[in-house]
Amino acid sequence: MTAIADSGVASEAPAEPYYLPTGDEVRIFEQCHARHLAVMLKGPTGCGKTRFVEHMAWRLRRPLITVSCHDDLTASDLIGRFLIRHDGTQWQDGPLTRAVRQGAICYLDEVVEARQDTVVVLHPLTDYRRLLPIDKTGEHVEAAPGFQLVVSYNPGYQRMLKDLKPSTRQRFVALDFDFPPAERERAIVEREGGADHATAHALVSLGNRLRALQDRGLAEVPSTRLLIASARLIASGIPVRQACYAALVSPLSDDASLAGAMRDLVDATFV
Ligand SMILES: Nc1ncnc2c1ncn2[C@@H]1O[C@H](COP(=O)(O)OP(=O)(O)O)[C@@H](O)[C@H]1O
Ligand SMILES: [Mg+2]
After folding, report:
1. Looking at the structure, do residues 194 and 258 belong to the same domain, yes or no?
2. Quick one: 225 and 260 in the same domain?
3. Per the CB 3.0–4.6 Å rule, which of 4, 102, 172, 244 could disulfide with 266?
4. What DSSP string describes 32-95?
């Protein structure tokens, strides 16, 4: 009976998810949490939004329930549904309902991907009511203390096609994210990618040069995540340029002339 406790595994606190802040985001998020304000994280792909939420959930000692949004996501996927079993039907909570009951942080990643009628179910949770009405059971679940709604989205991506309704946006405090300043991004690439100082430094300056190609039609610029992937390949023994072509250049563009321009920048960085 004591085997689990004695092993130390069960009682061990989860490790802190590494997050290097770039501004006041930790303090602002903590205040939002304490004051029951929903938070929206805006910023490009791979700049640290998900890692930030993981870190904040750890800091605030709250469970984290993450939902990746997509255009087939229905309100029932969030709230729950009746399951048919051999002995009748049974209600099963969806991830949002579980978070509301447990007082967890519910993180809806890429919320603009979800349909409007799905997003609307969040509204009563974001005001003073903090209520989740479950139409199918007639239940009104009041959010447990500690429940917080967090959504993320990438404003540059598909901006014309999809956007959040103003009535939805106004329910959130927005935190703007971007790629970290060079010195911080270097520290992140070094730590997360296992690169040495000089390699991490070179990868970040390459990343910033590649980001400047956005004006030349590069739809998505290299993220911190891609710089880390390159660093990992390099650390595993793949030659530097080859690692950069595979992890940085190819994922970003199929256009031959753009890819050529990017490879030239790689070659100029790692001569
Ligand atoms: N400020 C940061 N501190 C620590 N790691 C970071 C930071 N920003 C980015 N990262 C690293 O970059 C990776 C991608 O970030 P992620 O949070 O998944 O991006 P997003 O959710 O914005 O697409 C993370 O797994 C982490 O390794
Ligand atoms: Mg993410």
Report:
1. yes
2. yes
3. 244
4. HHHTT--EEEE--TTSSHHHHHHHHHHHTT--EEEEE--TT--HHHHHEEEEEETTEEEEEE-H
- Residues 16 and 55: beta-carbon distance below 8 Å: yes
Task: Output the CA 228–ligand 1 centroid distance in Å.
Answer: 9
Q: Do 20 and 123 reside in the same domain of the chain?
A: yes
| Confidence (pTM) | 0.92
Domain range for residue 18?
Answer: 3-176
**Structure token digits, residue 143:** 């959010």
What is the residue-averaged pLDDT of the chain?
Answer: 92
Number of domains in the chain: 2
Domain at 167, CATH number: 3.40.50.300
Residue closest by Cα to atom 20 of ligand 1 = 46
Judge if 136 and 208 occupy the same domain: no
pLDDT digits (tens, 9 = 90+) for 189-227: 999 999 999 999 999 999 999 999 988 888 889 999 999
Predicted pLDDT of residue 161: 60
Same domain as 31, residue 11:
yes
